[in-house]
Write a structure and sequence with these properties.
336 residues; alpha+beta; Fructose-1,6-Bisphosphatase, Chain A, domain 1; D-Maltodextrin-Binding Protein, domain 2; 2 domains; 8-stranded mixed β-sheet; 5-stranded mixed β-sheet; binds 1,6-di-O-phosphono-alpha-D-fructofuranose
Length: 336
């Protein structure tokens, strides 16, 4: 019989024991995120049978059509964290304004920002989806946090990660001590440590981008994509394209195998599409902890000073060398 598997529960209890001052709140918070993942995985598996595919008919604060599953995923987060005693504020892609949870105050010192269902255009076609989360700590003594307390730089995150609903459900996260991946064992309903201390290769062979937008990109971005497709044995080109329409899934592939994901700015939309606080920042923290990088093309994502909860940002993320080459092209330091 092999070694007894390390479950998420056991892992976080062990980590907590290594920090004598820990109150157990962070461990409980991660366990609750795991619970959200189990609930959503269950909904997604049965979505085609329980009439929750398709649109709600509403649009969110960013003007995007809200899918029924977007709404369900957001409600699941809110329900799991209400009365949990863990979190004093929530901000989500699907909520115009952050929500305070007074029932958890003053005990709950964490603030949670999330994209409840990333890649929701994949819902109706049985393709991968994800959930992305960022965890901040609120030290304020004066009462519940104001909106501006949630608008913080990526370097201030205490933990971040994502859930991925693919052929299996995975929870991948970092609390600043490496990146660890847990796979949900559906038989026992537990996450099991399957990917310990993930390290992203310094260079990859895959790129992920929506090339349908090619003609909207800057000259430098276009030149970088052309470069990736040229033949050159010495630099391992051409790269292969892999793009799923789900950021968490595409970054997951790159985290494990190397390469680069790009959702760059466009000439008439320089801010790009993705949201800084609950998409780019958490994935940037994960990738940086695994040895990779995330950039806007001109600045490290984790250093971007945000001004609004739903702020968008261009995102170039992945293997360290690939991101650096992309920056050189975008900044027109290279034109080959
Ligand atoms: P949805 O959740 O609205 O499907 O958006 C997904 C996403 O934010 C990210 O997961 C994808 O990488 C990106 O947008 C896809 O955008 P395009 O459809 O423009 O390629």
């Amino acid at each position: 019989m092999g070694a007894f598997p390390i479950t998420l529960t056991r892992y976080i209890i062990q980590k907590q024991a290594a920090h004598p001052g820990a109150t157990g709140e962070f461990s409980a918070l991660m366990a609750q995120i795991g619970l959200v993942g189990k609930m959503l995985a269950q909904d997604l598996r049965r979505a085609g049978l329980i009439h929750v595919l398709g649109l709600t008919g509403k649009t969110n604060v960013q003007g995007e059509a809200v899918k029924k599953l977007d709404e369900i995923a957001n409600e699941t987060f809110v329900k799991v964290f209400q009365h949990s005693g863990l979190v004093c504020a929530l901000a989500s892609e699907e909520m115009e304004k952050p929500v305070n949870l007074p029932e958890n105050w003053p005990h709950g010192k964490y603030m949670l920002l999330f994209d409840p269902l990333d890649g929701s255009s994949n819902t109706d076609v049985n393709m991968p989806m994800g959930t992305i989360f960022s965890i901040l700590r609120y030290e304020g003594k004066g009462g519940l946090p104001s909106e501006s307390e949630l608008v913080r730089k990526g370097t201030e995150q205490v933990a971040a990660g994502y859930l991925m609903y693919g052929s299996s459900t995975m929870l991948v996260f970092t609390s600043g001590q490496g990146v660890h991946g847990f796979t949900l064992d559906p038989g026992v309903g537990e996450y099991v440590l399957s990917h310990e201390n993930i390290r992203i290769p310094t260079k990859g062979k895959v790129y992920a981008a929506n090339e349908g937008n090619y003609h909207r990109w800057s000259v430098g971005t276009r030149r970088f994509l052309d470069y990736l497709k040229e033949r050159d044995q010495a630099t391992g080109r051409p790269y292969s394209t892999r793009y799923s329409g789900c950021l968490a899934a595409d970054v997951h592939r790159i985290l494990l195998g190397g390469g680069i994901y790009l959702y760059p700015g466009e000439t008439d939309k320089p801010e790009g599409k993705l949201r800084l606080l609950y998409e780019a920042n958490p994935l940037a923290m994960v990738v940086a902890q695994a040895g990779g990088r995330a950039s806007t093309g001109t600045e490290n994502i984790l250093d971007v000073k945000p001004t609004a909860v739903h702020q968008r940002v261009p995102l170039i993320i992945g293997s360290r060398e690939d991101v650096t080459v992309a920056e050189d092209f975008i900044q027109e330091k290279r034109r080959d």
